[in-house]
Specification:
about 325 residues; mainly alpha; two-stranded antiparallel sheet; 2 strands; globular
Length: about 325
């Protein structure tokens, strides 16, 4: 990769990592489901009028929109709202690579090789260490919600592989149109009209800036830049940069939010990042061509939320 492209990949990872801190601050302004709905509304408008018509079937846009936008980000935002630390969320969410490999084996017939199975085991051991650390003094339910968000991210990655979009920015903008109404409906149902109305009435420049960051910077810029890199370089060269997301996430959470990182959490980070590296970079045993019904495409990051992933996020926000 050219030095400029390496810098761009590192910048995207930093944007997705810092996104977890921005989400944490944003949850002080908005209820989690309303926050997620506003994120996708602003990501979709006005960009949807400039990216052209969808380039994949609507079933894939709707499927990814519901699983990634409603389920993954809804669970992530609720988990963080219930006490899951931003830095730990950026780390734990990376277990999506393990879920992606498992679901791809079931749905796409991609049999993981020995190194990938080893990596999955190492990553899961890291999750176990993180669970012990969080269970000692943090909300267990919030931890479980973020794990569930990672599982939903894995499902959305497999759906994205099946969709095989030729333009990741076009795909992500159209996907962003899907979750808005379901998330608004869920917010009204569970968070209440009064709470939503109060949050919108109290909207200030800080809250508006947070929405712009999670929508335009992490989603439109992040996924657009990531798609550009994937069009110019092999996925095996680009994908390792997602391992920097929890590094930026944990360090920025420590710097801006004062989150402490215990020795046990550092151990969990080493195991999880190492396991995800093995899982993501090791090869798979491909099914016979006759068994394939769609071309392969690289795993979509969030996000990350983000991949908030990342994400697609991770997206990676995440």
């Amino acid at each position: 990769m050219r030095p400029l492209h390496i810098a761009l990949a590192a910048l995207v990872a930093a944007v997705w990592g810092v996104n977890f801190v921005v989400i944490e601050v944003g949850l002080g302004h908005f209820p989690p489901l309303l926050f997620s709905a506003l994120r996708f509304l602003v990501a979709a408008l006005p960009a949807v009028f400039f990216v052209g018509r969808p380039k994949v079937a609507w079933k894939w846009i709707v499927g990814v929109g519901l699983v990634l936008g409603v389920a993954k980000f809804g669970l992530l935002f609720i988990g963080m709202d219930r006490g899951m630390p931003a830095g730990l969320s950026s780390l734990v969410l990376q277990v999506q690579a393990v879920f992606t490999a498992l679901f791809a084996a079931l749905a796409l017939g991609e049999r993981p090789g020995g190194i990938r199975v080893l990596g999955m085991g190492v990553a899961l051991s890291g999750i176990g260490v993180a669970a012990v650390d969080e269970g000692a003094g943090g909300p267990v339910l919030a931890f479980v919600l973020v794990i569930a968000a990672a599982a939903c991210w894995g499902v959305s990655n497999v759906l994205t592989r099946k969709a095989a979009p030729s333009d990741s920015l076009n795909f992500m903008v159209w996907v962003s149109t899907v979750p808005v109404l379901p998330l608004l409906g869920l917010s009204l149902l569970f968070e209440g009209w009064d709470r939503d109305a109060d949050a919108l009435a109290a909207l200030d420049w800080s809250g508006a800036g947070i929405i712009v960051y999670v929508a335009w910077i992490t989603t439109v810029f992040g996924f657009g830049a990531w798609g550009f890199l994937l069009r110019h370089h092999p996925a095996s060269s680009v994908a390792p940069f997602t391992l920097l997301v929890p590094v930026f996430g944990m360090s920025s959470a420590a710097l801006f939010l004062g989150e402490s990182v215990s020795p046990l959490r550092w151990c969990a980070a080493a195991l999880l990042v190492g396991g995800v590296a093995l899982t993501s970079l090791a090869g798979t045993r491909r099914p016979r061509p006759a068994a394939l019904d769609a071309p392969d495409a690289p795993d979509a990051p969030d996000a990350p939320d983000a991949p908030d992933s990342p994400e697609v996020p991770s997206a990676r926000a995440h």
